[in-house]
Amino acid sequence: MRTVGAITIGQTPRDDIAGEMEKVLGAGVRIVQAGALDGLSRREIDALAPAPGDDGALIARLREGREVLLAKQKIVPRLQACIDRLADEVDAFVILCAGAFPPFSSARPVLMPDRCLGAVVDAAFDGRRLGVIVPIKQQQASSAARWSRVDPGVVVTVASPYDDPSRLIAASEELRRAGVTLVVMECQGFTRAMKQVVRDVTGAPALLPASVLARFLAELA
Description:
- This protein is α/β, with parallel strands linked by helices.
- The chain is built from eight helices and ten strands.
- Strands 2-1-5-6 form a four-stranded parallel beta sheet, sandwiched between helices. It has a four-stranded parallel beta sheet with strand order 8-7-9-10, sandwiched between helices. It has a two-stranded antiparallel sheet with strand order 3-4.
- The longest helix is centred in the middle third of the chain and has 14 residues, at 72-85.
- The chain is globular.
């Protein structure tokens, strides 16, 4: 494997995420990016917003740095279109969003962070208390339901990688008080520096989607 297609739910470039992955993959693997919102007008992007109370909401970052909320069911076809467009250029795909998605159609492997994170948690969780950080409140209930298979008492807090850094500290302190022994940082936008904050505050290991995904890719390479 020499070329990876990195598909974001927002707009490219996402060099912040690609940079985290490149630290693990090394110079031998090239990353080609595509974004589900690339080329869309503001009106077209607004049309992809979730309905009030929609538990399938996702947060994405635009090229200018602004955040938008997207409905998962509306963005999935656009992700598939990105995969189809790069089908002849890459050896494998990665979805740059830690949300849970249905399988995509591809002759190449498509790695999804939620499945990679799930595999690592299954292998590493010590059975005591699992903590999760999601970027938006709309994902809190669905995340708790998903991770309850691992820990029925899972503690899910909210902090966006694009928000005030103090919010991540507050969320980490909430997890520390709950006595978590492993933390899942459930957003692709989190960085190594943010992971270190979570580790320092909680005193527990933390899983960063970008580096977990890259380690799976490294094995395929």
